[in-house]
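Archive maintenance. Older records in this collection stored only the sequence; we are now back-filling the structure field for every entry so that each record is complete. The fields below show one back-filled record exactly as it appears after the update. Entries are processed alphabetically, and Pectinesterase inhibitor domain-containing protein is next in the queue.

ARCHIVE ENTRY
Title: Pectinesterase inhibitor domain-containing protein
Organism field: Populus trichocarpa
Length field: 178
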Amino acid sequence: MRPVSLLFKTPQASNETEAMSRAKSLKIMAQICKQTENIEVCLQVLLSRPQALFRYDLMAMAENAIQLSRKESNDTVNFFNNLANSKDTNPAFKLVLKNCISNFKEGFMFLNLDGLEGRTATFDMHNAYDKAFACETDLSANKIAIDLVLARIKKWKDVFSVAMAAAGVLEDSLPIPE
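Back-filled structure field:
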């Protein structure tokens, strides 16, 4: 006859499984965050949707980070849109701000979940980053250094860097197709 503990999950076995799962999540988070410039921001992004952590897998964390990066991109487009359409904005800045809107909209299209399974996510994300960099370059060339604008772009970069790191760690863990 089998021991009862093998037939039913005992609280001890359940706690051990849960502890192992948490340890796995922490290990994945460490792999991702060590590739970012700001570990604190990385942890905030990864912990912002706890349901992704409870799946205990790298794919869930990468999906979550990319979704948050998409949200941040959309928020950045809205920010630039509001600024460009404000009557208080210097008219000389409006064209550059509209270019930034266009760049972030184009970059948004590259932040998709399809690339995660096809090992193209980091390539796509580099294209998104290039669009944000084009906005920064345009702002700098036109000597537009508005603190709110710089802070908005930094916030986007912080979230984006976590998504990029998560996608990179995921791609590195996938088998190379033959």
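Update note: The chain has one domain: 9-173. Residues 1-10 have pLDDT under 50 and may be disordered.
Entry marked complete.
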